[in-house]
Amino acid sequence: MTMQRTILALTLAGSLAAAVAAPAFAQEHSHETPQPPGNKWSFAGPFGKYDEAQLQRGFKVYKEVCASCHSLSMVAFRNLADPGGPGYSPAQAAAVAAEYKIKDLDDKGEPIERDGRAADYFPPPFPNDRAAAAANGGVAPPDLSTIAKARTYERGFPWFVFDIFTQYQEQGPDYLVALLKGYEDPPQGFQLPPGGNYNKYFPGHAIAMPKPLQDGQVTYDDGAPQTLDQYAKDVSAFLMWAAEPHLVARKRLGFQVMIFLIVLAGLMYFTKKKVWHEVEKPREIAAGQDPSKTTL
Amino acid sequence: MTTVSSAEHTRRDFLYIATGAVGAVGAAAALVPLIAQMNPDASTVAAGAPIEVDLAPIAEGQIVKVFWRSKPIFISHRSKKEIEEAQKVNVGTLPDPEPDSARVKQGHDPWLVVIGICTHLGCIPLAHQGEYNGFFCPCHGSAYDTSGRIRKGPAPKNLPLPPYQFVSDTKIRIG
Amino acid sequence: MSGHSTYQPQNKFLQWFEKRLPIGGLIHSSFVAYPTPRNLNYWWTFGGILSFMLGVQIITGIVLAMHYTPHVDFAFKSVEAIMRDVNYGWLLRYLHANGASMFFFAVYIHMFRGIYYGSYKEPREVLWILGVIIYLLMMATGFMGYVLVWGQMSFWAATVITNLFSAIPGIGDPIVTWLWGGYAVGNPTLNRFYSLHYLLPFAIAGVVILHVWALHVVGQNNPTGIEPKSDKDTVPFTPYATVKDGFFMVVFMILLAWFVFYLPNFMGHADNYIPANPAVTPAHIVPEWYYLPFYAILRAIPDKLMGVVALFASILILAFLPWLDTSRVRSARYRPLFKQFFWLWVVVCIGLGWLGAKPAEGIYVILSRILTVYYFAFFIVVLPLLGIFEKTKPVPNSISDAVLDGKAKA
C-alpha cells in the first residue's frame, strides 16, 4: 500500500513539475505576449446580464469607428430590439435600419439602393472581400459578428481547470479590450514590418490595424467617460453580444435547469436508498449488522 | 420485508410518486425546445413583415401577383363589368355566402386583393379563367368568380383575404 | 444469462400480442428480471449514461440537421443562423457540441473501469471488442461532426486528419484525393462528411445493441471479478440497477448542463468561430480534447509513416487486451502490482492529452516520447509479464462473501 502511494505521488509530482517547468521553458522561445488583464463584465458568471446602456454605447463606437472597415454581416437591425440585447424598441431598430442604404434590385431588375429595413443585415463597408483586402494592405479586416468568441488567449495550466469552476468565459472580450488599449511604441530593436503597428497584446506584436480609438473620439449622451478605456470596454461588450446574442436567456434557463436537476437528483438519491435498503435489510440482519448503516 | 408498517409504506410511495412526477415534468420540458425549433425562425418571421404595393401601374382588367410571407397575393383591378357580375349574384345561392362588399375595402370596389391559394388543396388558381371568369384551379377544377368566391368544384371556401389596408388611393400595405 | 422469462401479461391484448411477437418478454428478461451482481459500484452506471448520451446526440443531431446546410458557402452561416435565429437553436447546438465531449468523457471512464476490473477477460472478449468498435465509430463520427461547422479548426482538422492516409506507401495520395473528392478539402468533402456523420450514429446504435446483447449473454463483471454463484449474489435489474443508474445519470446531466449553460465554448476552440479559410492555417492546430493523447503519440514519432502507424496502433491495441493480459485474476482489487501500473498508465494517458495540446517542440516532444513508450509498454510488456510474476491477493469465495467481509471490516 505504501509503495503504491509513493509511486502515485511521485508520478503526480513529476507531471506537475513538468507542467510548471514546460511553459517556462517554452516562454524563452516565443516573444513575450503578456496575458490580457481581466475586466469586470456585467455578463460574467451564472447570473450575468448584458448592460443595455453599455451595449448602446458600444454600438455607437462600432457604428462611428469600427464600421468603416469591419463588417457585421450576421447581425440584423431587428436584433437591436431583441430581448437580452441593447434594449432598443422595434421602432428604434427600424429607424437605425433606415439610416443605411441596402443594395437591391427594382422591378425592372436594375440595381438600386433602398432604405434599410429591420429584417436587413448590417451592410458591409466594402463591396466584396477582395475590395476590402485591396483597400487594407492586402488583408481584409475580419467580420466582427463572432469576433468576441473567435479571439482568445492561452490560459495555461492550472488556470483552465479553475475556469471550469469560476465559469470564466470572457477571454474574448478581455483580449479585445487589451488589444484596443495595447498600442504603444515598439521597444528598441523590434523590427516592425512595413504597414505594421506595434501592439503589446497582439500575437507577434505587428498588427495591420492602426490604433482605432483615442480619448474623446466618440460622443456619449449618457455621461459615461469618453475615454479610450471606456470605449474599449463598451465596444467589446457590444461585440460579445453580437457574437452571443442569447447569453442572457442561456444563463437564465441554465439556472432553472440546475435547480430542477439538483431536486431530481436528490429525489433519485433517496429513492435509490429506499429501494436498496429494502433488499439489504434481511441479509444484513442475518449477518448481524445494523441495517440503518447500509450503504452499498 | 413482510412487516413494513403502513406509515412507512405511505412515505415510500410518496417518494416514488414524487420522483416519478418530477422526472416526467423534466422529460416534458425537454420536449419544448425540440418542438419549438420547428416553428419559423426569427429571420423568417422578420422577413414576413408587411409589404407595400403601388397600385398605380396596374391597368384596369389586369391581375398582378405579389408575394407576402411566401404566399401569392392576387391584386385584381376589376373592370365595371366584373364588378357588376360580382355584385348581382344572389348571395344565398353561393356555397360560401359572402357579398362582394365584404370582399373589398369600402370605396375601393375595383380592387380585389386575395390570397391566391385554392381552398381545396393549396394549388395556385389561374386568373381570368373558368366558367365564372374569375379564377380557375387546374388541379381539381374549382372555379371562382370575379370576387374570388367559390362557385363550382371541390373547394369548400372562398379565396381568403390577406390583412391589408389602403395607405393612399393608389397604395396598399399587406400584412 | 438473461433472466428466465416469467413474463405473463395480464392484459388480454398484450397476451395476444406476446404470442405473436414476444417483445414484452424480451424487454422483461433483459431490463427487468436480468440479474445484476449486487456489489456493482457507481463506475458501473456509465453504460447507462452512454446509452443516454447516444440518444441525446441522435435527437439533437436530427433536429440540427433540419437547419444545417452542408455547403462550403453556407455551412458556417447556417450554424450561426441556428445559434441566432432558430427557436432554442443555441440550446440544441450547445447540447450537441458539449454532448459530444461528455459522451467521450463518459466512454473514457467506462473504458478505464473495464480495464481496472478486468472486464475484458474470458468470457467477455467479444463484448470488449464490440466496445472498441463503438469507440472507433465514435471517433470517426465526432471528427466528421466537428468538420461540419466549417470554421478554421474544422477545415484544418479535416485537412490534417485526411492527410494521415497519405502516409500509406504508394497508394497514399490517390486515397487522400478519393477521400476529398477533389484536390483539397472542399465542398465534396463537406457533403460526404455530412452524409456519414448522419449515418454513423445509427451504426453505433446497432453495435451498441450487439454490445448489450453480448453483455446479457455473459453477464456483468463486478468489482470482485468473480462470477455470481447463487441468487444471493445478484439482484434483479429493475428496480435496483435502474434506480441506481437513473440517479447517477441525473448527476451526470448536472455536469453536462454546467457546460451547456455556463461554459458552452470551454471545450471548443476560438478559431472555429472564424469561417474556414483555405488560404490561412491557424497558428496552433489541435484536435478536440478527446483525441489529444493520440495526437501526442502521432507527433512524438519523427517519421511520418511510423507516426501514423503508432497512432492507429495505440487505439487498435485495445482490441488485443484480452490476450495481452495473462493474469487469471480479473479485478485490480486483488492485483497490487497491476493496480500501480494501471494508475500510472491513467496518468500517462492524461499527460499525453496535455502534451497533445502543446506545441510540438523542445521538452514537449521529449516528454511525449517517454509517455508514448510507457503507453505501449503497459500493453506489450507490463501486462503479459505481470500475469507470470505478480503475486495476487486471495480472492473471496463469492460476491456476497466479499460484501459481508467488507462490511465487517468497516
Helix fraction of chain A, binned, reads: 40-55%
Question: Tally the helices of chain B: what do you get?
Answer: 3
Query: What fraction of residues of chain A sit in β-strands?
Result: under 5%
Structural category of chain A is mainly alpha
For this structure, what is the CATH homologous superfamily of the largest domain in chain A? Cytochrome c-like domain
Query: Can you say what the CATH homologous superfamily of the largest domain in chain B is?
Result: Rieske [2Fe-2S] iron-sulphur domain
Shape of chain B: elongated
CATH topology group of the largest domain in chain B: Rieske Iron-sulfur Protein
Total count of strands of chain B: 10
Largest sheet geometry of chain B: 4 strands, antiparallel
What do the pLDDT scores of chain B average to? 92
C-alpha end-to-end distance of chain A? 24 Å
> What is the H-and-E element order of chain A?
HHHEEHHHHEEHH
Number of alpha- plus pi-helical segments of chain A: 9
* Largest interface chains and counts: A-C, 61 and 56 residues
Description of the molecule:
The complex is a heterotrimer of chains A (296), B (175) and C (410). Chain A is mainly alpha-helical and 296 residues long. Chain A has helices spanning 2-29, 52-64, 90-98, 129-135, 147-150, 159-166, 171-181, 228-243, 247-286; strands at 101-105, 111-115, 197-198, 206-207. Chain A has a two-stranded antiparallel sheet with strand order 1-2. Chain A has a two-stranded antiparallel sheet with strand order 3-4. Chain A starts with a helix and ends in a 10-residue tail after the last helix. Chain B is of the alpha+beta class. Chain B is 26% helix and 23% strand. A four-stranded antiparallel β-sheet of chain B has the order 5-6-7-8, with no helix packed on it. The longest helix of chain B has 31 residues, at 6-36. Chain C is mostly helical and 410 residues long. Chain C has one domain (31-409): Cytochrome Bc1 Complex, Chain C (Up-down Bundle). In chain C, 64% of the residues lie in helices and 1% in strands. Chain C has a two-stranded antiparallel sheet with strand order 1-2. In chain C, α4 (75-84) crosses α5, α5 runs antiparallel to α6 and α5 (89-116) crosses α10. Chain C is globular, with a radius of gyration of 23 Å. The mean pLDDT of chain C is 95. Chains in contact: A-B, A-C, B-C. Chains A and B meet through α9 of A and α1 and α2 of B.
